[in-house]
Amino acid sequence: NPLKGKKVIVFSYFKDTARYLYKNLTTDKHFLDRLGHKQLSIVDGSVDPQDRKDRITRFAPKANNRSHLPAEKQILLLISTDVLSEGQNLQDADTIINYDLHWNPVRMVQRIGRLDRIGSEHQTVFVYNFFPEDALDNLIRLMERLWKKLEDINRSVGLDASVLGEIPNPQDFNTIRRIAQDDRQVLDELEADSELVIGEFLLHDLLHFFKTLGEERLQNIPLGVGTARQHTDKKGFFAAFRNVKTNQHYWLFDDDRQQKIIATRLDAISAIRCEPQEPTAQLPQNFDPVPRLEKLRNFLLNKLRQTAHRLPRLQSPQNHIVNWLQSLPPSDQHTKLLHYFSQPLTGPALRELRALYRSTNQMNPTEWIDLLSQFARNHPHPERVVPQPTEEVTDDDLECIAWMLVV
Questions:
Q1: How far, CA to CA in Å, does 282 sit from each of 151, 226, 271, 290?
Q2: d(Cα 346, Cα 194) in Å, to the nearest integer?
Q3: Residue spans of beta strands (DSSP E) within 26-124
Q4: To 5 degrees, how large is the angle CA 190–CA 305–CA 400?
């Protein structure tokens, strides 16, 4: 048993799951004997803060200045929700088990960061992940989303360790340390760049809904159905669309009171989010959703077409470099550099370019070209998958998933 005698922490997103694990482990003496972890405990949001602190100290006494704590009083296996993913020193342990995968990979990094900290005596931190069942994964595409978001993080700031088995890219170790230390600013920057938090607060509701309704019944709901709900503050029409060619989803809300269409996902669904037991409202007599659906579909079409034809926005000094390169005589080297710098840079690459730009006031054009060429070689653009087909989106490409009238 590779875990026997080790300090192990098991994370779960849900409190009910954590308590289920704790209950079953503590009642299965045979399993505990095989596991070699008879001293176990649990931490979640319902545990009194003082008890929580005591259990953390007993699990990681060295990291919490209690190295003299007798071995028989220490906790070897700690089951926890993400209440422990922030601001705790747990580097006495070298093994983490993610019993379920968090919707937001930043939280996954934070979990590992509780163990992989300065002062750890361990050369390696072992991370084990339980992956969702295929049926559930087909519905929520959790793994696909996590891989995509981790890839975004890896490309923009770099990961110093694997989270889901991906190849780490240690571009900026300091940024990952800031994440591990719960630096709120770097998390805000990262989430803004990679759109990591879209829909995170919906995860619990979605999983509970799937479990309650059942996969078969959910799949039998026809596309394009709609309903109505009563709302005290908002009035309007919501619609969810899917591009059948790219499988991208869009949520829009036509706000009657503000007289505008809201296309930001979380804002668009705020008017329709409700509890399952909430009764539906009565649709107005002879209500026809088609005109309102067409209004939102046309709005979305125009927005997608504008985005497709819009040139990428370049930040300073990248935009100045592009303008300067365009003024130079044509050459193979100039063309390659222009192609490279016309693609937006982000994260550490952009910060390094700014530092480079500030330090080159006294350089002649030849030296500057050589330096830019070296920069391009050291910071290759990540390969991006272009959705196929690439032709302009049409009305037929956008199918309605569902709609709701808010009255």
A1: 45, 12, 17, 18
A2: 11
A3: 40-43, 77-80, 95-98
A4: 85
Chain center to CA of 24: 31
List the one residue out of 214, 222, 241, 380 whose CA is nearest residue 300.
241
Q: Is 204 helix (H, G, I), strand (E, B) or coil?
A: helix
Alpha-carbon gap, residue 96 to 11, rounded angstroms: 8
**One-letter amino acid for residue 347 of the chain:** G
Edge-to-edge strands of the sheet including 398-406? 225-229, 398-406, 236-243, 249-255, 260-262
Q: pLDDT tens, 89-127?
A: 888 888 888 887 766 666 777 788 778 776 778 878 888
Phi and psi angles of residue 311, each rounded to the nearest 5 degrees, phi first: -70, 145
E strands, 151-208, where? none
Q: pLDDT band for 36, please (50, 70, 90 cuts).
A: low
Report residue 81: phi and psi, to 5°.
-85, -175
Q: What is the pLDDT of residue 156?
A: 46
DSSP string, 273-291: ---TTSPPPPPPTT---HH
Look at residue 25 and tell me whether its pLDDT is greater than 70: yes
Spatial separation of the C-alpha atoms in residues 114 and 186, rounded to whole Å: 17
DSSP 220-264: TSPTTEEEEE--SS--EEEEEEEETTT--EEEEEEETTTTEEE--
pLDDT digits (tens, 9 = 90+) for 143-168: 555 556 555 555 444 444 444 444 44
Q: Residue 13: what residue type?
A: Y
3-state SS, residue 78: strand
Query: In the numeric block, which tokens belong to residue 277?
Result: 């037991």
Query: What's the mean pLDDT in 321-337?
Result: 84
- As a whole number of angstroms, the distance between CA 288 and CA 186 comes to 47
Cβ(52)–Cβ(61) below 8 Å: no
User: Residue 127's beta-bridge partner residues?
Assistant: 96
